[in-house]
Amino acid sequence: MEKTKTLEKVFLYDRLLRFNIDLLTGIKTEIRADLEEAKILGEALLDGEDLDLLKEFLSKVEGNFIGLLDETLDSIYDVYELFNFDITFLSSIPEEVEREVERLDLVNALNERLTSLKRLLFDTCCSPQRKKTLDLVLTPFRVYCELIDHAIEFNKKFESR
Fold it and tell me: CB–CB of 51/43 below 8 Å?
């Protein structure tokens, strides 16, 4: 790989890592408020099985999704720091930078983490057999599914560059 291609890939990966960190940080700052809002709306609008489904979903989000989100963010931060350290350390040896960029396989690593997050939300909140009112209450979480899905597709666009 020529030097300009290697440099382009370094810049792309740096931006992809930052983009994914920013996206997940944004979700993390909003999700607690969305959980509270969903609880309040659920109590006011739902009853019976739908309310039980909502409570179960919110419990999964609080118990599993937020933990996985934190873990994913920590992992991406670690990769970002390692990536920048390696690039800085190896910058005088372009061939090594190229090998390190290939070794890290950043797009696949990012997308695996994002897919785990999406799967956790998608399995519950994007089911087609929900009543309209429950779907309404779950709207913020469906938006998160879409955001994560778009991030995965966005990352893939740069995989072959």
Answer: yes
The token duo for 114 is 């994002």
Alpha helices in 2-138 (DSSP H): 3-45, 48-60, 66-90, 94-104, 106-125, 132-137
CA atoms within 13 A on the CB side of 46: 23
- Read off the pLDDT band of 124 (50, 70, 90): low
- Supply the pTM of this predicted model: 0.82
* CA distance readout (Å), 63 to 40, 104, 153: 19, 30, 27
Q: What is the mean pLDDT of the chain?
A: 84
Give the Cα separation of 77 and 44 in Å (integer): 39
